[in-house]
């Protein structure tokens, strides 16, 4: 794999998507952006999602031959959940690359112009359906800011070569180098730390687990003092970004386990995290973040559209040592493991 070429192409796509989304925010109404284009197997596709397809596919098509073929697995792109093969006419098994992509992660926030979304993409040697997150060798994420911001961060990682970031001024095109710097705090106390519970059902159970977690970790709280803060960012890419930039210290998205429990109780499950939502996790790993599955093992998942994913992120080993044993105990107590 030509890692730098793949990285440059994915950043080019991410920045093109950013410009298109920014244009949509300026020129379209909320009703136009939030109109439902179709209901996919994996998620709802809104008009703002559909509008970016015409941008990213042509860029990949222009480069597919030089990259010796691409299998593109992307939310909302094509009708086949097995992926789109580029260039057209090439057989999937002969393509060198498998690229998984979420053109807009955080659609619900950005289509209402509330908060940044993210373009997410990752590339791995193509092993067909056996390709997993651990095979990823290049990952990119590009911020899709609201209309009130003229700045967009692009982050990337090549396996074994660290995590990198710059900010682009969308008005002038100027770049400013930044630093990826996860929190070095040894405790979640006094920082942002949360269990994701932005979609029903079951939020009351997740809140209960979080409250008990805090009570155990910080037993001697002073009355009237806020010891932990939370940020329910409706974007897995946004959550990773907040950890990468040192804003958040601990995040757990355990909706898959939650909904499995609720289904056994005869309740209708809700929306879960999918592989494309966490496809840029290589950036987090290269930056030193610790990303695990619900059992505390290294996060891994097939690079497909339909698998469901639980993931837990710790800013560093000290945070993990403080939180993980308590969290694991509580997940067992409430039947989520």
Write structural notes for this entry.
The structure is a single chain. With 337 residues, the protein is of the alpha+beta class. It has 2 domains: 3-177, Fructose-1,6-Bisphosphatase, subunit A, domain 1 (Fructose-1,6-Bisphosphatase, Chain A, domain 1, 2-Layer Sandwich); 192-333, D-Maltodextrin-Binding Protein, domain 2. 32% of the residues lie in helices and 22% in strands. It is built from 10 helices and 14 strands. The protein has helices at residues 3-27, 30-33, 47-50, 53-64, 107-111, 203-217, 236-244, 255-264, 281-286, 317-333; strands spanning 36-39, 44-46, 70-74, 84-86, 97-105, 117-125, 138-144, 151-158, 163-169, 175-177, 192-195, 248-253, 290-292, 311-314. The strands form 3 sheets. An 8-stranded mixed sheet has the order 4-3-5-6-7-8-9-10. Strands 11-12-14-13 form a 4-stranded mixed sheet. β9 and β10 (175-177) form a beta hairpin. α1 (3-27) runs antiparallel to α4 (53-64) and α6 (203-217) packs across α10 (317-333). It is globular. It starts with a helix and ends with a helix.
How is the topology of this model organized?
Elements: H1 3-27, H2 30-33, E1 36-39, E2 44-46, H3 47-50, H4 53-64, E3 70-74, E4 84-86, E5 97-105, H5 107-111, E6 117-125, E7 138-144, E8 151-158, E9 163-169, E10 175-177, E11 192-195, H6 203-217, H7 236-244, E12 248-253, H8 255-264, H9 281-286, E13 290-292, E14 311-314, H10 317-333
Parallel strand pairs: 3-5, 11-12
Antiparallel strand pairs: 1-2, 3-4, 5-6, 6-7, 7-8, 8-9, 9-10, 12-14, 13-14
Helix pairs in contact: 1-4, 6-10
